[in-house]
Amino acid sequence: MDAQQRPGHVMIAIDDHPSNATTLEVGLALAHALEQAVAVVHVVEDAIEPVRAVAEHAGVELQLCHGPVVPTLTELVAAPEVAVAVVGSGEPGRTDLPAGHVAVALIEATTTPTLLVPAATTAGIGAPLRTVLLPLDGAAETEAAVAPTVGLLAGTGLEVVVVHVLALTQVPAFLDQAHHDLAAWGEEFLARHRVTEGAPRIVLRSGAPGRGVLAVAAAEAADLIVLGWSQDLSPGRAEVVRLLLGASEVP
């Protein structure tokens, strides 16, 4: 291992989907940004040559695994040496899912920070990752959910932009106070996790939370979005996560 690399590694799982090269490239860009080693895995289902060719083109070793896809990936991702997992978002096979069934099953099952890579993303393709969008609402549950991922960003040099979307009923009466409170909370939160030495940028929007996050992601040219959630995509739950998985091209 390179002496400058951190403990743990980024596990990139690729399949035979045409976008697997994109998933791999984004995963490698993330590993570079986090200064961590890489493990590239493939759970064998059908022909492995197309997958092997993608790995060889990227110059990485491919680890072949056998077994049912979701349980096998879930077990691999749960290993203590895996700091973060990277998988393709896939294509929804059902109207009630915002992403492919493997990706959804994995993020519902694992507590390991997991990056879902949309097929159409341009983040990390031919350029380093630079900007991370961190939607926060000041709630203790949100802080606890995103803390493991935020901790990975400490000392990486990635710019963290905190975004909070106020409901329309809160604007404009509480706009100034909300911005002040969130700015103070965001600074304290990121400083506690040693993510940034200076004051973080706080972006405040009004309207529907999911749409607001999408708008800020576009305006800031965000490369990554960090979300904390309940790990439950049943109807009526995790509406912001559902919208972003279905509509965002940002991993």
What does it look like?
The protein has 251 residues and is an alpha/beta fold. The protein folds into two domains: 6-117, HUPs (Rossmann fold), CATH 3.40.50; 131-247, Rossmann fold (3-Layer(aba) Sandwich). The protein has eight helices and nine strands. The protein has a five-stranded parallel beta sheet with strand order 3-2-1-4-5, sandwiched between helices. The protein has a four-stranded parallel beta sheet with strand order 8-7-6-9, sandwiched between helices. Strand 2, helix 2 (49-58) and strand 3 form a beta-alpha-beta unit. Helix 1 (20-34) runs parallel beside helix 2, helix 3 packs parallel to helix 4 (101-109) and helix 7 packs across helix 8.
Give the topology, please:
Layout: E1 6-13, H1 20-34, E2 36-43, H2 49-58, E3 62-65, H3 69-77, E4 82-88, H4 101-109, E5 114-117, E6 131-135, H5 140-152, E7 159-166, H6 175-192, E8 201-206, H7 209-219, E9 224-225, H8 239-247
Parallel strand pairs: 1-2, 1-4, 2-3, 4-5, 6-7, 6-9, 7-8
Structural features:
single chain; 251 residues; alpha/beta; Rossmann fold; four-stranded parallel beta sheet; 9 strands
Distance between the termini: 27 Å
Which overall shape is indicated by the principal axes computed on the Cα atoms?
Answer: globular
Give the C-level CATH assignment of the largest domain: Alpha Beta
The string of secondary-structure elements, in order, is: EHEHEHEHEEHEHEHEH
Report the structural category: alpha/beta
